[in-house]
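Could you join me in thinking about how sequence relates to backbone shape in a protein? Would you write everything just below, so we can both look at the same thing?
***
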Amino acid sequence: MRVALFVTCLADTLAPAAGQATVAVLERLGHEVVFPEEQTCCGQMHANTGYQLQALPLVRRFVHVFGDASFDAVVSPSASCVGMVHEQYPRLCELAGDEELGARVEALAPRVLELSDFLVNRLGVEDVGATFAHRVTYHPTCHGLRGLKLGDAPLRLLRNVRDIELVELPQAESCCGFGGTFAVKNADTSAAMLTDKLRCVLDTGADVCTAGDSSCLLHIGGGLSRARAGVRTLHLAEILASTG
C-alpha cells in the first residue's frame, strides 16, 4: 500500500520522533511511505481560534497536496489534526460557499486516517511486532475519543506489545486541559485540569504515559517534568516502533 505521511506542524517542529516512529511502523508492515514536502499546517489553530475564513487557504493546500489519487491512504500520528479534516473542513467549505472544494474534501476525507485507526480498522492489524518492557498507562485524547471515536483501537495495539505492563488510567476520559489555545486563554482552568490528570497518571505507578496526540503529551509531559515525577511521555507510535 502507498501511504502519504501527514506529519502535522506540531510533530514536525516539536515532536519529530512521533512522525519518524509512524514511518518505522508502516514500513515494518511492508508499506511504501511517501512524505509530500509541500504539506504545511492543516489550519486547525486558525479555525479553533475563530479565524475560520483565514483557514481556508490551508484547507485548499491540504486537498491539493494530499489529493493525489496514487495515495491509498493519508496517515497521521495526530487524532487532533485528522479530526480537523473530518469535522471542520466540510463546515469551512460550507461557510465559504465553495461547493467544489467541499466535494474534494468529501472525496479525500475517508482516506485520511489516524495511525491506530489505520492499523486496526483499515488493515486489521493489532500486532505490529513491537517490544517495550515498561509499565505504561494510556491517555485517550479528546479528539481521538470523542471526535474520531477511536474506541479501544490504541489499547488493542498496546496489548499486543511484547513485555509491556499496561495499566488502566483512572478517569481516563477526562480532558488533560490542553485544548490548543484553550491552555493559553484559560490558563488557570487548564492548569487545574492538568493537575487532576497528573494525579491519575501518578496513581498508576507507570513509567510512561502514552497517547495519540503529541500536543496533549507535551502538556502532560510538561506537568510531569515540573513535578519531577520521574514519569516520561511517549507517543503511541514510538512504543509501537520499539523493538526492545
Remarks:
- Residues 79-96 form the longest helix (18 residues).
